[in-house]
Amino acid sequence: MEVYNWLYEYLILNFTLSLVCAQSKLLFTTQHASIKEFDFQTRQVTVLYELGTTVYSIDYHYKNKQVYFPRYFNNDIMRFRYPAHSIELHYIVSTGSKPAGLAIDSIRNHIYWTENVLSNGRIVRCDLDGSNVNVIAQSLDYPFVIRLDAINSWMYVVERLPKIYRQRIGSSKQEKIETVFMETACMDIEIRTTQNRLRRNC
């Protein structure tokens, strides 16, 4: 339990907003615009890349071994191979204003992200190479976090203040599942054989 308690405190203190698990290591971003790696066995933290810009989420494509993330103030999405001897960033696609949340559908090979164009929050999707950009949902109230249950074809989104909702991947119909009474910056899905559970941090 000690390592889990320490890690939880570390993530909260550094305003960590998204995680990617890969084997016995954990990738995470911090408020200070770094991508870091935590080794569960040695408990060592390694800075993989100093981004120099704000990143609120990262996700991992397990088949092509690429990490994807949106740059909040640069209005784009980047990727890099992981694991690798050195980190080399590659540009994927330009986004609308302030892309915050990002999720990878490793089954259908799509990238989903949230963005806020003035008062018109949107969910957008494209292929892994940045082509075929499509708006999936719009007129949302500050969508910030997005997670996918690709196996069961569900997409979960946090509109940062009013609600958490879900919708079928490929559908535009939204279903509210919780009212949010405080800012929610993180959410993940606990996959089980019988049911899925949402976990969020405020």
* Sheet/helix structural class: mainly beta
Whole-number total of structural domains? 1
Encode the helix/strand succession as letters. Answer: HEEEEEEEEEEEEEEEEEE
Determine the mean pLDDT: 81
Round the Cα radius of gyration to an integer and report it.
16 Å
Give the termini separation: 22 Å
What is the number of helical segments per DSSP (H or I, 4+ residues)?
A: 1
Corresponding CATH superfamily: TolB, C-terminal domain
Task: State the major sheet.
Answer: 4 strands, antiparallel
Tally of DSSP β-strands: 18
Features:
about 200 residues, mainly beta, Neuraminidase, four-stranded antiparallel sheet, about 5% helix, disordered N terminus
Can you walk through the features of this model?
The protein is mainly beta and 202 residues long. A 4-stranded antiparallel beta sheet has the order 1-2-3-4, with no helix packed on it. It has a 4-stranded antiparallel beta sheet with strand order 5-6-7-8, with no helix packed on it. It has a 4-stranded antiparallel beta sheet with strand order 9-10-11-12, with no helix packed on it. The chain has 1 helix and 18 strands. The two termini are 22 Å apart. The chain has a single domain (2-201), classed as 6 Propeller (Neuraminidase), CATH 2.120.10.30. The protein is globular and about 45 Å long. Residues 1-19 have low confidence and may be disordered. A hairpin with a 3-residue loop joins strand 14 and strand 15.
